Write the structure tokens for this entry.
Amino acid sequence: MSDFSEELVRPTTEDEQGETCVLSGTGMCFPWLQKHIETVGKTLVATGGKREKDFAQTTSACLSFIQEALLKHQWQQAAEYMHSYLQILEDSDSNKRQGAPEIIWRLGSEILYYHPKSSLETFNTFADRMKNIGVMNYLKISLQHALYLLHHGLLEDANRNLSQAETWRYGEKSSSKEVLINLIQAYKGLLQYYTWSKKKMELSQLDEDDYAYNTASQNMLNHSWKTSINLCALIQIPGVWDPFVKSYVEMLEFYGDQDGAREVLTNYAYDEKFPSNPNAHIYLYGFLKRERAPREKLISVLKLSIEKNMILHRKKEEHHKLGLEVLFGVLDFAGCTKNITAWKYLAKYLRQTLMGSHLAWVQEEWNSRKNWWPRFHFSYFWAKSDWKDDKTLACEKALVAGILLGKGCRYFRYVKKQDHQVLQKKIKQMKKSVKKYSIVNPGL
Amino acid sequence: MDLEEAKEFKERCTQCAAVSWGLTDEGKYYCTSCHNVTERSKEVVNTEAIPNTKIQAINRGLKRKQKLEKGWDWYVCEGFQHILCQQADALQTLGVGPELKNEVLHNFWKRYLQKSKQAYCKNPVYTTGRKTAVLEDNPSHSDCDSAPELLSDFSCPSFVESGAESQPDGHARKPFSIIKAPQSEMASICSGSLDGVEYSLRKEKGIVKMSMPRTLAFCYLSLLWQRETVTLSDLLRFVEEEYIPYIHAFQQFPEEMKLYGRDKGIFAIESWPNYEDIYKKVIEVATFLDLPRFPDITEDCYLHPNILCMKYLMEVNLPDEMRDLTCQVVKVTGIGEVGFLTFDPVAKKTETVKYDVQAVAVIIVVLKLLFLLDDNLEWSLSSIAEKYNEDNKEDKPWFDFRKWYQVMKKAIDEKKQKWEEARAKYIWKSEKPLYHSAIDKPVVHKRREMVVNLQKQFSALVDSTPAVEKKSPSSFQFNWTEEDSDRTCFHGHSLQGVLKKKGQSLMTKNSLYWLSTQKFCKSYCKHVTTYEESNFSLSYRFVLNLFSFLLRIKTSFLHEEVSLIEKRLFKKKYNNKTKKKSSKSRKVRRH
């Protein structure tokens, strides 16, 4: 609301005009001058030569300090800089102010997730505050907040959060909002399914003649309706919704709505708009088998499923390509940086792919990552800390680093230099592999 | 209870699974068969886009009676007076004599008020005809007509007793009895001060309007008048280190001096002062005030290049022996003469000496004379010195440029890192939020509250160990002592390795020199040179970066000053304009 009035009232001070004079006063027109001004010009904005405020400059410096601290897992420092960065919410530049909450939420939740002094309450307060700064992020933050609570096993709190988000309304329904609402509802449905299946377990242990049986089954019934409402909206939208579909179908089947279940599964497997998903065919096949469908039908489904899978796995090598894609993707996440399995497989797949001389596949994945992975995974800092914490992990990572960055890379060099009796053989092997397969200077 | 309206809601009831909905008075859906009320409510269908909430809010703001804070009646110039007072007090605690505040700055300020026709004159110029009429009705002001004699009138209570804290007396106050501009009644344009709106709109030729950077110009002019041991770069560094109130100065206003609306643009700034900018403003203000020639800068003054060179040689850990050379350069170039050094706003309107930048430039020129700084000679001279030092451990060591580079590089990188970190952590926003208008006010307050709460949350995560105690202000940023083995002190090292005897005098071994700038613009623009970093040797760039960081100025600015010194030093070469490399070897006399 304020941005509007600020635009109106914004005074043009004399200083700004003064700056214009300085620029035009140079009286030169070297071709490189413009470029020079632009490079000097973190301080000079091209429009009229108005100087960027130091405020803008220090807050953006602050942001990079936070990012660096996060990369190095220095939560304490990150929190310190965060304290100053919050000022950006009061920036007089409305564009920056509006973009800030999302940045703050992402960085802040990361800090609070890992910081040793942080607690559940701190995180909850933070999330609640961030939800209510502006209106753009309410749904997204709510969903992420719920996932955080789920992660900590607080199903009821998560459920409450999702319910709140579900009923929240602001402005018109936009398509991006719709997807978020559907997701929120679906997660709520999944939680309800969880309670339902727990109840089902209880029920199976009860005697049918028991009085309690009736109330319990009534209870279950209520739950199933709520759940189906929540789940069915999401699975109409093209996407991969395996856990949601599975639980929805299970409930439908339980209450004898076979037609509904079949429709859902058929749709999920055959609708062209949905991404091809082998699981969808497996689900459908399983369902038809349970339903004792005629043999021919079963076979036709199976055939199609196999056909689809064949396309997907046409070659063993192509399987590797997908594997690479997944592994690279997994390791993009900060939470997975120390996952030894992922690193082990990545090292293995890289070697195999390069052995099969599919350099292009590796490069395809690597190109988008080569400007941030070195700092993210393969810095000197990480080499030291990984070696200290987990030597096997360090070895796997060093192999990957060597392949991707060449033997000059710091991570590789650090691990190579270490003298370790047990791992000696492994390091030797690693050196050999790097020499053979490194994608840097493939000619050598 | 409109069943028609509820038709679009087609989901099953969670209680009875029926699809039969009605709407409650609150707009929520309820099931007509089991009377279960849902959490869902009917969506309000907007015909307009989302921003209409904004319009609504603005409407509300306009409808609501203007609720602006009421405080004392105060004028913009009083605000500046208060800030100048704070700054003068701060300078005094830094060790500057009391005359600076009570006499010099006070008189400059009175002169400013008079020249800008805000006080001490009959017809304050910026008020409209109607307002002058108000003034002339009031005959008691005839005693204000006489201009204050510069530096003779010591008694203006309102200033000496810390500015606006005392309610301004009739002296400065009455001439301003202006009726607020009619626009200020509009909710969007307002100000806490009486003339804030008008002030921000004022654009008159020939009048230098007060601004935050200009308060520093006033401070520097007073320091210069008093020939204090503070250079402009020191002053600005003290501002950044918060020894002198600047960014947050308006927060020290008395509670009753309310500040909002247009005042925000006048007093609240979000940039630190910049050397070039303040330097320009110094000249501008001095010219506007029509100040007479300043007291002479003689050889015993701190601002004299010989003394400043010595200071900066110590600061950057260079041998004391270089002093002879800097004095020599100062002498040859004539930049040590009183006439050159003394500021005379009337005589030379467009220029004054940038004492600190110039002294540093002299040192750079001397370094170039001794070591050439072509990424070659300095290293081979270093190797010779290194070898000599190894062989003659008992003697006074020869100055080793490479070692000096290593020590300084490490020191400056650390310092820079700390400086950048401190800047990134700087808290700009004041505790009391400033708003532009009444509409803005609640939003701004809410936002502030949010930030404070979030900040509390994150500061709870920071270790409670107090930050390193703020060190006391000093004009030195480095401290080099003989004891510290890690940071070698080069003050006592000798230049023997780079000088050679010739008859009675000493000459630099190096007989070459390259000019930082080949040609100077002849045109009126007075532009000296443009610094394209990649065109220069690495060691020259290092030296430039080192010094420009110390002074917190742009490297190009310092490069320009170096070129100017060279222009004076090699006048002939520039006049001939034929040779690119000067092969002048210079004689250095020994004391």
About this structure: The first helix of chain B runs from residue 52 to 63. Strands of chain B lie at 21-23, 28-31, 37-41, 499-502, 505-508, 513-514, 581-582, 587-588.
